[in-house]
Design a protein that fits this description.
It is a single chain. The chain is mostly helical. 73% of the residues lie in helices and 3% in strands. The protein contains 17 helices and four strands. The protein has helices at 30-52, 58-65, 71-95, 97-117, 121-132, 137-148, 151-183, 185-206, 220-243, 248-270, 284-312, 331-355, 358-376, 382-410, 416-443, 458-480, 489-494, and strands spanning 3-6, 9-12, 446-450, 453-456. Strands 1-2 form a two-stranded antiparallel sheet. A two-stranded antiparallel sheet has the order 3-4. A hairpin with a 2-residue loop joins strand 3 (446-450) and strand 4 (453-456). Helix 7 runs antiparallel to helix 12 and helix 9 runs parallel beside helix 15 (416-443). It is globular.
């Protein structure tokens, strides 16, 4: 079916329910569908592991390549994913979701292998950019489930898939510690290359293709313009500390980014099939939800990156932080925090149905702010670090589960898909921008250099934790300004 504009918003419309058999695509028993679900959940976890395994490896990689630009390992991954995910999603709607699921899985495996074998840091960055195309795996998996699963199993399947991804916050640091401590950072990326190859083969053999195709145009120009805008912004932030924040190079990056953004806005207004439909940005419900997604993902990214350096920085350096432990030691902090996050995610379902999703969201941001402030002034000893990180994790679990519910509550049914895509892009940008700003602040507070790798001063960590707290406060204010999320989730979803 073709795309048809509705109230100024270009939408691809398709009535899936009238096209799909109630028992799903193909003839499978319940056990067979459970097998398909397990395969798709495991593939989705590859994306989570690309964050949770790699972040603890950053200190090891910085020392190996003797680079102060280690933030780009995370930034390029999220940047590529943020820009490519909407494009890949439309290609999957047009050409087949299973087909593009296999392509993005291949990108994840290839990019990971490039990083594992990279002789220089620029090659590492190329590998991470290729990996970034794999961020589209998660939305494609959910969309494919919607198309192929029996109606009676769909809600349970999506819930189990969400819970499965949450479990990686518990297991990821454990696996990361074992791999890094025994094989270095290369062990992490070899694992990230092998895992999707195995699961991808199972997808090829077991998972059915979606029968649904949507005729749509791909906004390549919009993708390039938005990608250029974000890349210039992140590059300027990353180099601003070295150039000077008022230098002509920094100011030029700012001017180029503004110009590219204005051109993208004008292009999006004229396009019948824009990369991001600007109509979804209108109104207080969507704007406040986007702000909470941006700030929430920014705080989550900063917390995990900072913890990786704090745990692994040697005590002998005499800084105001540093536990001098291995990467595996992180699991003693992140495992209880992961359990707390998963439990809070389950609690959100109960609260959202009775009091609306706004309540757990603002409580979550309050806890994130409190945990970040606690860590800003107490990040030297294990127990205070554990306490502060746990406070943050309770809040992170609440907002991670609340925001998808707020998207549903804020958005008309006809705009659900495009809004969800926009929110995901904004969240990825929040992570990328926050990490770049965080490392730019740390770069202004270098205490010493060991084997060519900078060792950051404690004041830099205090400043970045205060930044995380400030971002959480902004998210809290945006949540309190929300006109939606105050009623039960089922009521607002039907309104």
């Amino acid at each position: 079916m073709t795309a048809t504009p509705t109230d100024g918003a270009s939408q691809e419309t398709l009535d899936n329910d009238t096209m799909l058999p109630p028992e799903g695509v193909g003839h499978r028993s319940t056990a067979g569908w459970i097998g398909v679900l397990v395969i798709l959940v495991l593939l989705s976890e590859e994306v989570a592991y690309a964050f949770n395994l790699v972040t603890p490896a950053l200190p090891n990689m910085a020392a190996t390549f003797q680079t102060p630009h280690i933030a780009w390992v995370s930034t390029l991954f999220t940047l590529t994913g943020a820009i490519s995910a909407p494009l890949v999603g439309k290609l999957a709607d047009r050409d087949g979701k299973k087909k593009w699921l296999l392509i993005t899985t291949g990108c994840m495996a290839l990019g990971s292998l490039i990083v594992a074998l990279a002789p220089t840091f620029p090659i590492v960055l190329i590998g991470r950019a290729v990996e970034g195309f794999g961020l589209a795996i998660v939305p494609i998996v959910y969309s494919l489930m919607r198309d192929i699963f029996p109606k009676r199993m769909l809600a349970v399947a999506v819930s189990l898939a969400t819970a499965g991804i949450g479990v990686t916050t518990i297991t990821g640091p454990i696996f990361a510690g074992l791999l890094i401590d025994n094989f270095g950072y290369q062990g992490v990326f070899f694992a990230l290359a092998i895992f999707p190859l195995i699961i991808g083969a199972l997808v090829l053999l077991v998972v059915p293709e979606s029968p649904i195709r949507v005729s749509t145009q791909i906004d390549w120009t919009g993708g390039l313009l938005l990608g250029a805008t974000i890349a210039v912004v992140l590059f300027g932030i990353g180099e601003g500390g070295t150039w000077g924040w008022t230098s002509w190079k920094t100011l030029l990056c700012g001017a180029l980014a503004i110009a590219a953004f204005i051109v993208w806005i004008q292009h999006a207004k004229r396009s019948d099939h824009p990369l991001i439909d600007l109509s979804v940005l209108r109104g207080r419900p969507i704007v406040t939800t986007l702000i909470t997604q941006f700030t929430g993902q920014a705080v989550i990214a900063l917390q995990f990156v900072l913890l990786s350096f704090i745990v692994q920085t040697p005590i002998a350096l005499g800084l105001t932080y540093g536990l001098g432990e291995t990467a595996g030691f992180m699991a003693r902090i992140t495992t209880p925090a992961g359990v707390a996050s998963v439990l809070m995610g389950l609690l959100v379902g109960y609260l959202a149905e009775r009091r609306g999703a706004r309540l757990p969201n603002w409580i979550g941001f309050a806890l994130m702010a409190a945990g970040s402030l606690f860590l800003a002034f107490s990040h030297k000893e294990f127990v205070p670090i554990l306490v502060g990180y746990l406070i943050y994790a309770f809040g992170g679990g609440l907002i991670s589960a609340a925001i998808p519910n707020l998207v549903i509550a804020a958005t008309p049914v006809r705009l659900q898909a495009v809004t969800a895509s926009t929110v995901n892009v904004v969240g990825s940008l929040g992570s990328a921008v926050a990490v770049q700003i965080g490392f730019a602040i740390l770069a202004l507070n270098v205490a010493t250099v060991v084997d060519g790798s900078p060792i950051y001063g404690g004041s830099g960590f205090t400043t970045v934790y205060v930044l995380a707290a400030a971002l959480a406060v902004i998210g809290l204010i945006a949540t309190l300004l929300m006109p939606h999320g105050r009623k039960s989730q089922s009521t607002e979803a039907l309104t």
